[in-house]
Design a protein that fits this description.
Length: 97
Amino acid sequence: MVRLDIQNYPRIWLDILHWLPTAHQDNWKRLGLLQAWQASIYEIWRERNRRMHDGLTYPPAMVFRVIIFGLRDKCSSMTVQGNPRGPLLGQFWYDPP
């Protein structure tokens, strides 16, 4: 798995929003970071809904696993559809054989 090597990232919401579009010099790593950000926000929203509507709570490790599996599924789908970004982004979310 290729690491995104993100250092000195902001921790305040507004700063993060300004930082994300220019977070990394490498376009693929920046796209991978944006993909992870979107997946994380979506899964946090789903966790909120699980708690409010279903009375269920996933442990943080499970939420993290769901995010990673979602990212892998997205890359696999892109690959199957012939999108060249699929394998390139997939290198961030798959463990090496």
